[in-house]
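Hypothesis: this fold can be encoded by more than one sequence.
Test: take the structure tokens below, design a sequence, compare later.
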């Protein structure tokens, strides 16, 4: 069961972080280059709608497998290594950041696009980018901690 939890955890993390990376590094520049502003906003609305549905599933998997491993594989918080505490903290920050993006910014983006307020929607999209970038950097950091942490002795 530990191996299954570890595998699912790694896959879910890779998909979430990889999706953010793809959106920021590949999709954004291409959309900027090839699409008119209104088309870009509608593309982002649809892209985020599909991606965020997946992120909800991935977060559920990450939380379930993360806590399973923490308590059944590593013996809980009191018995676990510092790198696991750091991963736990970064993971919670990423989830809270996603909640802010989803419930705060993305909801507003959709309402503005649906009401044809493209100027307002563009402003919200500009606010989403640094928050998504923050989650990308947190995702890279948590990956580095997870991969290197077991080999660092404290």
């Amino acid at each position: 069961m530990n191996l299954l939890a570890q595998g699912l955890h790694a896959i879910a993390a890779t998909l979430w972080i990889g999706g953010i990376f793809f959106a920021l590094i590949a999709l954004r520049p291409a959309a900027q280059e090839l699409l008119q502003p209104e088309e870009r906003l509608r593309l982002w609305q649809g892209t985020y709608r599909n991606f965020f549905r997946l992120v909800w599933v991935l977060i559920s998997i990450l939380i379930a497998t993360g806590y399973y491993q923490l308590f059944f594989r590593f013996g809980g918080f009191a018995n676990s290594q510092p790198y696991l505490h750091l991963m736990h903290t970064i993971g919670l920050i990423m989830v809270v950041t996603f909640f802010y993006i989803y419930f705060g910014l993305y909801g507003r983006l959709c309402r503005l696009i649906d009401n044809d307020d493209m100027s307002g929607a563009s402003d919200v999209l500009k606010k989403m980018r640094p928050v998504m970038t923050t989650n990308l950097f947190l995702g890279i950091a948590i990956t580095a901690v997870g991969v290197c942490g077991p080999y660092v002795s404290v």
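Residues 94 and 135 are 6 Å apart (CA to CA). Residues 37-73 form the longest helix (37 residues).
Hypothesis status: open.
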